[in-house]
Amino acid sequence: MTTAQEDKTTAMVDLITVVIDGFEVSVPKGTLVIRAAEKLGIQIPRFCDHPLLDPVGACRQCLVEIEINGRAFPKPQASCTIPVEPGMIVKTQLTSPVAEKAQRGVMEFLLINHPLDCPVCDKGGECPLQNQAMSTGQADTRFTGTKRIFEKPINISSQVLLDRERCVLCARCTRFSDQIAGDPFITLNERGALQQVGIYEKQPFESYFSGNTVQICPVGALTGASYRFRARPFDLVSTPSACEHCASGCSLRTDVRRGKTLRRLAGDDSTVNEEWNCDKGRWAFKYVTANDRLTQPLVRDAAGDLQPASWPEAIAAAAAGLQGKRAGVLVGGRATVEDAYAYAKFARISLGTNDIDFRSRVSSTEERDFLAAKVVGSNPSYQDIDKSDAVLLVGFEPEEESPIVFLRINKQVRKRGLKVVAIASKLSVGNAKLRATFVCVSPGAEAAAIAAQELSAMSVILVGERASESAGALSAVVALAEKSGATIAWIPRRAGERGALDAGAIANLLPGGRPVDVAAARIDMQTAWGVDALPSGVGADAQQIISLAMSGDIQALVVGGVDPLDAEKSHDALVAMKNTFVVSLEIRPSAVTKIADVVLPVAAVTEKSGSFMSWEGRARSFDAAVDSLQRSDVRILSMISEEMSRPIGLSSVTAAAKEFASIGMWDGEKAKFVSVVAPALVTLGVNEARLTSWRRLLDSGSLQDGEENLAGTARKAVAIISPSRAAQLGVVDGDAIRISNSHGAIVLPSFIESISDDAVWMSRNSQGSHLLATLSVASGAVVTVVRD
Amino acid sequence: MTTLTPVLSAHWDEKDSFTIDAYKRHGGYKAVEKALAMEPDAVIQIVKDSGLRGRGGAGFPTGMKWGFIPQGDDKEHYLVVNADESEPGTCKDTPLLMANPHVLIEGMIIASYAIRAKYAFIYIRGEVTHVVRRVQQAIEDAYKAGYLGKGIFKTETDLELVLHVGAGAYICGEETALLDSLEGFRGQPRLRPPFPAIAGLYARPTVVNNVESIASVPSIIANGAEWFSSMGTEKSKGMTLYSLSGHVTRPGQFEAPLGITLREVLELAGGVRAGHEIKFWTPGGSSTPLFTAAHLDTPLDYEGVAAAGSMLGTKALQIFDETTCVVRAVLRWTEFYKHESCGKCTPCREGTWWLVQILRDLENGKGTAADLDKLLDLCENILGRSFCALGDGATSPITSSIQYFRDEYIAHLTNGGCPFDPRAATLFATAGVDAK
Q1: DSSP 8-state assignment for residue A182
Q2: Burial of A730 by CB count in 10 Å (0-12 exposed, 13-18 middle, 19+ buried)?
């Protein structure tokens, strides 16, 4: 802690004053001249310069005249490479004829080989080259010779196209891939004017962050395959938005033309995503405009068929079906804070139950207690990572499960060699890039490895949702944090989970982290909601709700955006739903809508306003980016509640947001965490292995439906085994192996890697590897592995 | 009249001059023993006192470069010898390495000892396979003799010497591009600072020296700083290799004190080829502005050449007689720079692409006199605007040739093409080929 504070103090003292175009400006030591000029509002033209990339000084567009203490540099200097110094006097193009001519000269050179195809170029209208050619270039060309031409365009991946003749060779894309993403899969090849961005045929440009190269390309050389030729920038209506794909909390910009989202760009938020996002956040949005979107309510008729119905009819049917029954509420992990709050309130007031859970995935009671004791209301942050002396990863693969967290860790690894320790059964590609110390454990044996870690109060423990899959792991995390003073940051995979937790969409907490079993907490909410009583005991978790529905103890379910195949025992869930009255709130047909009694279409993220709460506990609010007749879940729940005469009184997203904000967080004592002891691992028989898995960032997730270009760069499904198991099975890389249990079998090419000898790793939900649907288990379970 | 001072080239005419035995016969590997008995800093001081300046082109004082290496920093230090001799007209390091590779090795041992480097590298042009083989053999012999490896010369000092063969890029002669290439990357110049003395090869303090600079060190140690500084001029000390090529009777390497004039060198070389007279020449390779007959008496040292508006560079004296079309010669050089531009920075990459096209038009009699001003303006936009000196060098032949031979450019336009018969400039041309 002291180090950080000292840094801050020195930084505050260490201001350097320089004169730029006659104006004094004081900036921190180390600031580049180009950035100091920006502070004065002086825009020096540039291409290769990017504030988040290392300076390179390649394009030479930002030349200025510099003198230090009366000694002038003999030549104009690239202002993007020179840090300010005391006594420095800078003359930019505004006051120096030399700088002005140098810049015009460079601009002219840049344009001689650049095609005049602005009218058909995607970048036209938002192009730094176009803009700066207007400010720094000449109206007419002196170049009458032959331009360099290339065959156009070429795919450097299924998502990114390269028009080489447009490229100004600023190396932003290659530097981004190398320095920020840690994926040096593109590089500059050849030399002179024939220099070009190239790929290595044996290592394709399959980076989860490739879309950023398109965004930072200062010309139209890199274009996204799914946006190319779709729109002119000036025809787009832009709306600041938040990403719905994970809990990183990226700020985005959604660009819409004639009511249809055409592209999404990374928003600029220095505290969160800086200027980056991942390819899923950028390129997975077609699910909103999928042909099979639900557009009107459906109600099951007497014959058992779903029939289109009017809204009043459907609302009445839903209310009638729920009335007087013991009902449970299952909320998907993608609900906004406002929607989750509505589900939480609906369960308590309209259904009179605490049987609610947002964890539509593998989860545990240990996790529920952990969330209530350690996570709800907490505010760990990206800055904690920036300042940390070590990062411990538990049940969490940053690159796959929260890519911007990965970028942030990578930044610190690159900048100052931040120590990263990963407790896992397999070393992932991402963690290898982070140069993480890989603590290899058997699936299920995480707890002991966590307990053995040495951390300090400056350390951060990043806990993923998969930590709940190993009994005792979260208990070990709590013990380690208490022992060391390290910060716990829980990073779920889905965007809505943290918000749903704080909004009370869980069996043990009311909104604001109020324990359901604490009378004072209930009184808080009774007062806020104006009701006499609230259900008092801790309700049933998602798994228990399914069991209770199977046994008939629960007779109705409200299901919002849940795919039963995301959890273990998915077949049970479907059977349970068949036995009960199900109200499904969904955007597209699913396994649930097929068997639901009432299906109510809801708005997708771009069609509604609301907010997500990122893993930091940071609100990420957004407005509707497109006009839509679809309603947010909160509106529909409110209508049902009125029909049931137990109104939740949330007429709009704004009303829900206001009410949730006015309630505030619980200031009483948090629930005590009850430690769970890790059970002993079962002994394995011949050809048996413990299953371990996680979801790839790009996989068969339903929000990626229809994005073929995106899917083209997804990592291929493989089954990973250790060298000793490979030897035992007699397989080499690529040989098919068969992984099976009593539910089913999956055959995949094997890949031999650093993994616990008793484990087999498979991707959880990729093409050809749908574990929960096929094997009904995800992690820790014993499976049989044989050569196919 | 200045006379030759053969030191490096003293025994090149001996049949076995390249062998370790021949080298030792002439006192080789004695200076290194003397140096190893001294304090490393004392070795640096002698080199500083000698006034030896870098022979690769820039003329930076060698001893000072060594002195920049931070000592006691607990880091590896590296010595890298730049043997990527690629400057058009320059042919001194290649014959030196052919005829006497051991003088470089001895110099490298002394230099490594002085800067406390345990690893030294020679980055050599890939094209000169015969030289690569010869240097490789010399290194092997030096290892066998115990001059390289662990505990060299029976002392506590270790030195590993690595020969690295480049893949054929002019830019890799630029020291930071050379380092990138040596590290296995594509050769492109690095941003400075940090300078190689602080973060060079593998981000460690590194000295990068030219072959000739390092090869001059054993004689300085053996004969003393005063002996060396007794040769040359006030600020340009010692002897050096001038490589003379082109339209001369006896081209080759002439080792003489700095400050000799071209008139003197030409006399030693038997003059311009018979029946012809000098038209223009380069003092230090194609990247240095041209000189004409008016500069025959310019002292060929760093200051003298600079005062006359050019640079001593690599002391590559390319001689062109009156049969040569200067436009054509400049076009060829410019094509070279275009081909060799690494592509990193805009002015050099795009500028050379453009310059070639204009020059080609001019050579073919297309264009107008205004194109000459355009050429000069473009050169102004490249010179001092590019990332490294390659771009600067590309403009030298153009601006200097227009300065001295503007009329000849104009003649191409009025003539509707080149007024010269290109065959007349060739060596195989028979005497008396008529000019068109």
Answers
A1: S
A2: exposed
Closest-CA residue to A281 (of A266, A271, A293):
A266
Q: Which residues from B are below 8 Å from A193, CB to CB? A: 338, 341, 343, 349-350, 352-353
Calpha distance B381→B378 (Å, rounded): 5
Q: Inform me whether the C-beta atom of residue B195 falls under 8 Å from chain A C-beta atoms.
A: no
3-state secondary structure of A296: coil
Angle at A84 between CA A83 and CA A89, to 5 degrees: 130
HSE-CB for A259 with a 13 A CA cutoff = 4
Cα angle, residue B245 at apex, residues B220 and B332 outer, rounded to 5°: 120
> Cα Rg for chain A, rounded, in angstroms?
28
What is the Rg, in whole angstroms, of the alpha carbon atoms belonging to chain B?
22
| Closest-CA distance of chain B to residue A216, Å | 18
DSSP A201: T
Nearest 10 degrees: Cα torsion B186, B192, B198, B204: -10
B374 touches chain A (CB under 8 A): yes
Going from the C-alpha of A642 to that of each of A337, A349, A464, A478, A645, the distances in angstroms are 21, 11, 38, 42, 5
* Confidence (pTM): 0.95
Of A112, A187, A190, nearest to B354 by CB-CB distance is A112
Report the complex ipTM.
Answer: 0.95
Summarize pLDDT for A228-272 with one digit per residue, the tens.
Answer: 999 999 999 999 999 999 999 999 999 999 999 999 999 999 999
B292 has a pLDDT exceeding 80: yes
Minimal Cα distance from B367: which residue of A?
Answer: A144
Q: Could you identify the residue written with the tokens 């590559």?
A: B316
Cα separation of B210 and B101, whole Å?
Answer: 14
CA angle (A437 as vertex; A415, A439 as ends), nearest 5? 155
B366 at interface of A, judged by CB pairs closer than 8 A? no
Residue A671 has a pLDDT of 85
Out of B341, B380, B382, the one facing A192 most closely (by C-beta) is B341
CA distance A191 to chain B (A): 5
- Which of A76, A169, A193 is the closest to B384 by Cβ? A76
Number of H helices and number of E strands within chain B? Answer: 18, 9
A192 and B351 within 8 Å at the Cβ level: the answer is no
Query: According to the 3-state scheme, what is the secondary structure of A392-414?
Result: EEECCCHHHHCHHHHHHHHHHHH
Residue B207 has pLDDT above 90, yes or no: yes
Residue A490 and residue A463 in contact, taking contact as beta carbons nearer than 8 Å: yes
Flag whether residue B385 sits within 8 Å of chain A, measured between CB atoms: yes
A149 touches chain B (CB under 8 A): no
User: What one-character-per-residue DSSP string does B136-172 give?
Assistant: HHHHHHHHHTTSSBSSGGGSS--BEEEEEE--S-GGG
Handedness of CA A114, A115, A119, A122 (dihedral sign): negative
Predicted pLDDT of residue A8? 45
* CB atoms closer than 10 angstroms to residue B373: 11
A397: its two tokens: 């693969």
